[in-house]
Queue: 4 jobs
Job 1
Amino acid sequence: MGKPLLDVKDLKIHFPQKKGVIKKKVTYVKAVDGISFTVNEGETLGLVGESGCGKSTTGRGITQLVPTTDGEVLYEGTDIASLSKSELRTQRKNMQMVFQDPYASLNPRLTVEDILAEPLKAHGVKDKKERRKRIEEMMDVVGLNRSFIRRYAHEFSGGQRQRIGIARALILNPKLIIADEPVAALDVSIQAQILNLLKDLQEDFGLTYLFISHDLSVVRHLCDRVAVMYLGRMAEIGNTDKIFENPLHPYTQTLLSAIPISNPRQKKERIILQGDVPSPVDPPKGCAFVGRCPKAHERCHDERPELQKMDEDHYVACHLYD
Amino acid sequence: MNTNEPKSYSPFREFLVKFLKQKMAVVALGVVVVILFVGIFGSFLAPYDPHRPVTSQYPEKGIDLDQLTNASVIVEGVMTDGSTIEGSEVTQLQAESENRRIASIRRSQRGINVNANTSGYTNATIESGDVSSSFQVVVEGESLLEGKEPVISRLIPSQPEGVLTPGDQFQLDVLAVLTDGEELTDQGDIHELALRLYETEEEEESSGFNAPASDAEAIEGLHFSSLNEEVATVSESGEVTVVGEGEGAIRIQTGPVSSVVQVQAGAAAEPVLAYLNVSESNVTLTDVYKHQPPSSIHFFGTDHQNRDIFSRVIHGTQDTLLIGFVSVAIGAFIGTALGLLAGFYGRWVDSLVTRMTDVLLAFPGILLAIAVIAFLGAGITNIILAVAVFTVPVFVRIVRGSTLALKEMTYVEASRSIGVRDPVIIMRHIFPGTLSVVLVYLTMRIGVAILIGAALSFLGLGGDITAPEWGSMLSAAKDNSSTVFHATFFPGLAIVLTVLSFNILGDGLRDALDPKLKE
Amino acid sequence: MTNVLDIKDLEVSFKSDGKEVKVVNGISFSIKAGETLGVVGESGCGKSVTSLSIMRLIPSPPGRISGGQIYFNGENLLDKKEREMRKIRGNDISMIFQEPMTSLNPVFTIGKQINEVLLLHYKMTHAEARKKSIEMLKLVGIPRAEQIYDSHPYQLSGGMRQRVMIAIGLACEPQLLIADEPTTALDVTIQAQILDLMRGLKEKTNTAIMFITHDLGVVAEMCDRVVVMYSGEIVEQADVDTLFNDPKHPYTVGLLGSLPKVDEKIDRLYSISGQVPVPGSVEKGCRFAGRCDHVMPHCTQEDPPLFKMKDGHDARCWLYDPVHGRKEEAKDGQTTLGREGS
């Protein structure tokens, strides 16, 4: 694996919530509460977790679509969080997003050409012919028929729309793609097409992916490394094979056991969790998972576990392994 | 790829298909188009001049005019030296009708205008200083009136010839012209006629203009009085005696009619006004053209001033549409801009704009408009501003609302993640999204604006109340609405039809532009 | 075992732009008492429309059941009057929807919403209904059932709401429970809870379940038998073991192949090319022909019938036709299919 491209250090994203008529009480939703990870050049890091764990917010925080509260987002050594507005705009060229909902992420009033021209216009490609040429090339790359260039986004099916979304992200030749659940809204057969496309594009353009997903099978398939998040914190991070074959954190273990296996002959022991994810406004003082953890002990209630190295490229935040 | 490709999509075609499915809206669109056409070409379409009574336009149109509702009487001043001056040169010319319910009299450029009001007789007097003449006005309504005895129209005195010296004596000769044109030369006849004519009236009425005569002698017929006793005296029979040097004058009066004879002893003097000549001493008018019912000549009939309502309604379309369109255009433009900014940037911009909007929305629309008019003064421009002021918050609110929703759309976030500038995002992704709702509201608000504009005119806040504007037409016609149906009905119908059409069109647009409404 | 539900040649049409399009085109299947039937397919395949037509809840217009019969305990539901259907809904057949956030009325308490079903179908006093409701809440594994009984939906999480929906669905002890993507909107750990719950309840109540989903993993875990739908038709049906281990229809094979596996690393997923055809766009021949890797000339000529593989295993594919299929495909067809499937 290459050198680090993106380095997230102790990232915190808190959303203030004003309560009371006279706004006297301000509580914070700790959507992301101090996470650190590195994405190396050319690799795919999967960011997994259940809804509300802060994985999408992390993605938006990295691209500065939501303001970060604390911590650093280092892209090739520059802290994105501290950039000025215009510097950030230039920087965004290198870091593009693919969104979950291919229906909501494309403006239905624009044609494919308009949508794909937007990033080019924003980054100073003024010549209309050149734009057209690049758009057509990009449509070939993502497998869209060139004749669709004048079609409106809403005329396409979900899979084709996601191809447009990917084309929009790739047209500026970014190094890093942050894909926020890009296949969650797609049917199985289309999902496979898009996953294969993402793999091909990575090989052809040497892309680095931060792949945000709740679907562990997809993550297993696509990612080199996996980061498991729970309630705004990092539970476990490391090499995909190591985590899937030897999950250490009790949460990762539950998560993996909960995946339905598409083979009726293979029956496996399932850990059924009790209760729901606690509110991120008032997370537990110690380990975030303490309320639902089958192996919780006293220390877990009081002390927040830090990530500790268990193996080469395998870290876990759990007191069981102290 | 699938070969079964649908026909190339056009958002406009889809809109059109959806719109055409709504029969009512299509009809409303047709009506709106007609209204717009009328608004633009109204001045060419109107058969009559909406500002003038139709009767005065009949000759131009070649319509036979045998009766009149108004007449202009040319007034001429005759000076003591026999020369004449035009009515406009006569100083302090006053005209008065004895019975204003029957006919009203106004000064005009060359004389006076007589307007028939109701059938009946009246005498009218014109006066300038000591001189006055009178004429008779007969207004015939649906029932013709029998002729009334003529009255004295004017007294023409003979002026003394040459230069007079104190001690001279001469007899005044008076010619009385009656309203039927008959001339009486004998002083005794005039006296008798005057006695008969004014005897009863003076007891009944105490009008100001014949007060001097009644003071002197109540039942006197023909009365002579000297205006300067130091120069000349006059006897009851009209014998003038010059007693001193200077300018003197004798006033000859009978009833409301008076003339002046200049008595000049010594040096020559400027001639003064001797009497007033009127071009017509017996004005016969009719009131049947007022409030004419709808007919083939006047589709919507005529109003209380005998103006063609059809022409006025057509002319009024322009003002009405001007109020509707311009005010809503101003309001929508400002409102949309503020709404976009407030919705997109939030924070203090939003707080400020929202607070202002709330304040404006707290007042009922018409009240706010009246307040603005009260501040700016009446007039059509101010009506437009007033309506615009209360249109702004409506648009701020709806545009802000849809901006807030659109701002959260992933494609807006996607644009931001690409590095697109805020103004570009607003113009490319947010504004087009609000456009459909703006368009719908625009159409509907035009209806409301027209209604409020008409209401303001109705209340007399539109400035010129005689202007052909639907609201002021209603306002003017409302007093007779219990007896006259068409004068209020047609302007009212025009308002209803216009407002309804714009509202139905707006409804249709909304349904056609609503992406959720597929079928 | 008797069939609780028997659907024969069901056809459902929707009108759009003046044209009537068949979205469900002659499907037949049956569910036995106590059995869980999985109905699998991608969006637009007609699986939800099928479930709504069983409940006679197709929005009409534009929709219309244009043919076939739906026998529930031997009686054709399509002949029933609306009044009779109301008695059946919620009582004999009940339904759980995908969206736990919107299927509950936010204005009423949980208790009220369970009571409503009970009071509608049973002669019960309010006190009895309350007792039964709390019993149901306990049955679906809701802790502090008495407290939840008086809560409003917004106070509950998605998983809890779905439990409440299941409690409502099972309150009248229906013979058939139609679950339309009941876990799609939920997280994996919550999904595991709900699936676990439904499995347990099925054993307790012997309710037949029609489980509609697009998730093959869930089907493998939950169902006894599976119906695979594509573009308004059943393309394959078999018991769950046969379907996952010996799929016959190229679509089923492709679907299974395109699933990423959590327990093994494959470099490249098999993917079915192209898109699901728009309903009504395929005029003749097999609806899958345009995307099929094994397409033969005959496939575009005639719509294939369901071919019997073995007992209870049917596939709608010309490959298995003794006349058209074997000759061309004997060489490589079977083997290729088999390899992709595993």
Job 2
Amino acid sequence: MITKRVIPCLDVRDGRVVKGVNFAGVRDVADPVRMAEQYSREGADELVFYDITASHEGRALFTEILRRVAERIFVPLTVGGGIGAVEDFARVLDCGADKVSVNSGALKRPQLIDEAANRYGSQCVVLSVDARRVGPEWHVFLHGGRIDTGRGVLDWIAEGVSRGAGEVVLNSMDTDGVRQGFDIEMLQAVDALVDVPVIASGGAGGAEDFIRLFTALPRLSAGLAASIFHFGAVRIPALKRAMAAAGIPVRLDGFAGEEAE
Amino acid sequence: MLAIIDYGVGNLFSLKSSFAAVGEEAVVTGERQAILRADRVVLPGVGAFGDAADKLRQTGLFDTVREVAAAGKPLLGICLGMQLLFDRSMEFGEHQGLGLIPGEVRPIAPVIPQGLDVPHMGWNGLHFAADRSPLFQGLQEGDHVYFVHSYAAFDCDAYVTATAEYGVPLTAAVQRGHVFGTQFHPEKSGNTGLKILKEFCAI
């Protein structure tokens, strides 16, 4: 049976993993290569790296880190941040990324999705959407949640998938970083809309939030989180055991297991 | 020496690194002589079947791969590289494959239950044929590996060495003599995948 993926997300700025709360108040956390190795040993099913660097030097540092990760970690790697052209796909794929996530670059120029899917295949193109509730609906936001595009989330995701995105990461900025649980209502609407895998992001506070998510939405493909893993609120082996005990299919083989504290 | 065939599809950095992790020196090459000199050969591949088959022909490597198989050297096709081992694919029209393993590549959407995502993406358990392939010697029934595909091999029952359950059993691995194929990505399948690559290097 296909298992539900548990995916730690590493935001990298100037060569370090950082984490913000509600897309603000960024804190320095760790060395990205060491952190990725630890998560892989503990059973992470995939790793997501977001490059949140603004500078040219930071970008070069990011691709160097990516290369070092791909050299020693043998689980799928998704890379996002600063992807505005097909050339950006080439840059990170050459460093060992398996999938590339597009966000604001695709909003500005939706043809980017078509171009990338034609060149690299849909399985390589992940549509990442930052969403927030505005009145009775959900809107797509830009630039870390600061700008409301006015675009409806369901409308944009339907367009992105029809253009060739092979997977969707839906990041709720209402729940991001506050550890009150995933935005199940919005995820349900998106999951019912598309037949590509959907990854829930934003709001995980503990194992019970993953259990609630996959119990409510058994078709959902994966759950992504950052701060609960980075700050040790829950360790991946313990999370997966709790999910398995709740009857959720997870992968418990193929990794070293518990890490010494 | 192991050769990873470079015919312009996909990034081979992870694949090369994964062989390094099991102590096997791999060269990434598109040169016929280097491929024929190797002790064992890996045919990778991502993207569309037709494009990949065209590229194999344009680079002249289509016949080289057939020569490797005819010489009885261990050959491993991964993902689209496995699909290319078959007679033909029905992905965007009919395309001829290498014809090294009888069977046909078709979309999974019509055969899986409604409501399941396409592509079949993520970690799924392997169920092995009664006669265990040497690639899977070190594994346990149900060990998980990473898949991402929308097409699969059919009509090849005699050569299937492992399946994965996705509403229906899908072909996960095949073998005919020293020609091996995995629909999943061993280079992205954690320790389980590394064990498989290590076994391949011991054949």
Job 3
Amino acid sequence: MKLSFRGRTALILGGGSDMGLALAALLREEGVTVIPTHVSDAGREAVARRFPDLASTRLALGDHDFEALQPALDAGVDYLVDLAQGDLEGLAAAAGDEAESYLEAHVSGRLRLLRTVTRSMLPRRFGRLVFVSSTAAALPAPGQAFYCAAKRAAEGLYQSLGLELGARGVTSVSLRLGLVDAGRGKRFLDEGDRRQNLGGKVVSLEQAASTLLFLLSDQALALTCTTITMDAGLTAQKYL
Amino acid sequence: MSNPEDITASITDILADILDLDPVQITPETYVVRDLRAESIDLLEIGVAMQHRLDMEVDDDTLFLKNMRQVLARAAKAGKAPEEAMTAEYPHLDRARIAEILADREGGPVIKVRDLAAYAADRAGDRED
């Protein structure tokens, strides 16, 4: 099967992450123009190292204006891949200001951004939104309350956008990834820790990026208003 | 574009395109929701189309008088005249139109094509100032 892409431009939030870089490479092979965004200098530098011809735009989920994105949105963004996610671990019962800021950025801030991006998609009657979620949305570990809540809330936003704008050609899907051998997952995976008996239930970076590419393709557009789990079976069993 | 006739013509075209109507069905006095049956998603598209085609920033809440109930409730609570609160919130509407809207609320969504035109003219005026 040969994948086809009716869109020409993809905005990748968190484009400097391992997954963002891997997906950007695949999209560029398909002739799709990639616009990566970053929050940190490390993200910007990672993009510059891998793709010297690509300029990354700084964008944080808590931002209130998206002036920096406007030229790209005016020119037309067809795909949005949302890999943006900050780290905050802590107990829900001990949540303080930091947790409130985190949720404001990851839920309300994400909504502000989605509103801006989808409004730019409406006149062209096409848009594809792909949110990278996590199995922690379904099964959080203690300490992952904010991460879990942010992911679940975002899944709801994406599902609703696909539902509301589907007739206007804007579709959405969320992909719940389990342990991925990259980024946050890689930090969790400790090869030297023999207590970690994951039975090979790890998603490779290549598998995750390829699946995201498929979800962006014309062939996957009927996968909309839904959430898919891809975790190599990690959360299918009762005990680990 | 600040000529009122041009603005009204552009808005008529936008409404006709989005709602799949014959432009002759649309006059400045036409109700956008009551007569043209525009739904929420249509209003969203109308706002976006105005932004793009008329090259102006559009605040949907103000354009479609979305917060009118809250504006009036807040005014009542504060002992403020409804006309005054409406004028402050919707500066693009003149006093006569505000009085008309306040008398017309029971019939359903009050927004008319000419209200959209008034908003666009006001924004175009701001830009030229």
Job 4
Amino acid sequence: MSAARETWLVLGASSAIARAFARLAAAEGADVLLAGRDRADLDAAAADIALRSGRRASILDFDAADLAAHAAFVERARAAAGDTMLNLFLAFGFMPAQTEIDADPALLHQAIAANYAGAVGVLHAAAPIFEAQKGGRLVILGSVAGDRGRLKNYVYGSAKAGLAAYAQGLRARLYRSGASITAVKPGFVDTAMTFGLPGMFLVASPESVARACLAAARAGKDEIYVPFFWRAIMAIIRNIPERLFKRLNI
Amino acid sequence: MELSGWGRSSRARVEACRPERQADLAGALNPAAPNGLIAHGAGRSYGDAALNHNGRVALTARLDRILSFDPASGETVCEPGVTFRDLLAAFLPRGFMPPASPGTAFATIGGAVAADVHGKNHDRHGSFGDHVLWLDLMVADGTTRRLSPTSESDLFAATIGGMGLTGIVRAACFRMLPSAAPTVRVKERRIAGLDAFLAAFAEVRETATFSVGWIDALARGAEFGRGILETAEFEPAIPPPPAGRAKRVPVDFPGFILNPLTVRLFNRAYYARVPAAGRERFARFETFLYPLDALYDWNRIYGRAGFYQFQCVLPDAEAPAGLRALLEEIGRAGNASFLAVLKTLGSAGRGHLSFPMRGFTLALDIPRRSGTDDLMARLERIVRDRGGRIYLAKDATLSPEGFRAMYPKLPRFLETLGRVDPAAVFASDLARRLAIRPAGSQ
């Protein structure tokens, strides 16, 4: 790695994985920009990271669903990063239960706005920065739910699947400028999203997912599953014939 | 989910919530849980203090941000889930240490406030609550109040050592102590018996920054009360020795492994490892403060049935006879017990239910077997008759009568509790077992 200073822009910085990631990146020497909606929470996180790591930690207001504001947001982030190399960790997501979505169509649109439209919007706005700086690492937190549409979670899953396809295309575009995109597909992680849900197994800690994300980004990997065995689990799930899959209650 | 105390003798089925940020914390109060609510930090209290069977617990471990630090004054503000380990990692390299630290660095600041914890420097620096400048406490009606010794002083005193029964700490401001360093010079010497121990402590409690004694609770006859006295001072000029790797206990040990013979051999070896002339060594500060943290889940050594930790304090004047009576009772029971820890405490805490008082404190693990509850009751009786006190953060067996006798400021605590939480929104298994609230109000 070069000695050039780095800044990690963390989108959705109040989530458990993002918090763990920002702490880790700062502990390993990067500055961090924490972006999200809960300003009080971001202030607390920024103070904590600065005190623990001695690195610069600042906050930016960011609402993924406010598509019109993305261009200006990206400008502010670029300015805040100063002359350091900007990296981006996209961590926001919104996973209402499928049954809640069925009961309230507004949730369907919110899920699409946050998980797909918001994500793609901000990434597209930020892409020129990576072309201009000729490098940088992007980590996009997807989900194993995007690997196949399932009865229990298909709105969220379809948004993450769309994001995954977008990331593939953007990866090819930024590859030409020397920037990498790591698509991360976590299985069950011990976060607010999964806490207390029935049927969780082999649950990973946010810290372990954060470590895997940072290592994969540094290695320039295209796609990882965390924990790794989810690649095998999802290979099985993807290969169940649709004729059979549609009858399954998963 | 099921939760247990660190001693694994107390267990509870609870409905858990786990706020990830301050804004989520108020949700722990809604809707009201039938059996009330208690905060649960690292789960390092030994008994039922952070358990609430058929009720709700708020897991506070994710509220773990250090919010501010002033290197000029040592003033630190942090959320309740910050641990001593976090504080040492951030501030020991800058020469600051937590003012009082319990025997594990995995404990949280929320727990340190709730139990008004003390450490091996109590004579010198007091307990954690002595260094708290203010607390932001979420009380039963969902509002947050700032408490300090001068504003809402009664609720402040009820919260320091109040075992979480006044509310949930959102943030704590306390003063860290300067002149700390990563390395300590540890002096170890053999102590031949109980009277010699008390005499040695009388001297070192006036001079040493840190002191702790290890007693072989199974030694009899001429060896009764023998052990090792450790004192420690910071050595800023010496780089710390390398940290050992934390190990884990892979399985619950079967009960037969801990028997009077194996434990007696262990205790003997522990005594013999210090040469008769004593010795001096340099140690990492954390290794000196938290020897058991090197074995991450050491509580599994006591097997599935778990263990009790007995910890009491006896006033100075009662200590010689009281400690003798306690050690004789423990020895008679023959219940395999590793080294007992003997320390001095300097002065009373600021909380209505604070544990510390000037005197000697004895702590030891007692594996839970048949007959153990009777032993605990006999030990309680001795402590009570000698004007001593049992530490609620460790306790799982104290009786309501014993509790009332040992905690004379309970009426003031209850008066405050009746004001801020008349409907008993906050409750725990410990509070019910000890009937802390008078019957009928819970």
